[in-house]
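Treating backbone geometry as a discrete language has practical consequences that deserve illustration. Part of our work consisted of pairing the sequence of a single chain with a tokenised description of its backbone. What the numbers capture is local backbone geometry rather than side-chain detail. For completeness, the protein is quoted in full, as a sequence line and a line of structure tokens:
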Amino acid sequence: MVIGGLNTSANVYLILFLASIAVSAVLAYRLYRKKTLEVGVRRWIIFGFLASMVLISGAASGNVVTIVFGASLLFATAFSFLTSYVKSDLVKRTLGVVFFFATFFVMVYGYAITRSLILLIALLFIATMLSVAFVLSYLLPGIRKNPRGMAKG
């Protein structure tokens, strides 16, 4: 059945998506105003909740592109949350590599299924940004030790 140019199931998904956005906004605001949690914890809870909503709305509507973006946002939020509490540099780098490959695999798999141009653009952008970030994270400590690039002696 078509109502207002969209079929009924699309209208239901649109209403559910808008309702979930409204509930997310209210919960995020209440959580943000709560003074008992640290600011960092509140921020990651809100980002994780919003990423979950994107993933759930994509699954409910059957839109693979939205599912891929939701899963990628969840991986990014989980990586950021975990690395903000981990003290060991080796563990942080290991988590970075694991979450990088998880996000990259999700994006590649989503593109392979849908052949969506937006996923290809996002995949290229994420791959470029993460590659630059990893290269800089390994190069910057060496540059800081030897600021002018000159050997001692």
User: Anything to note?
Assistant: Strands lie at 2-3, 6-7.
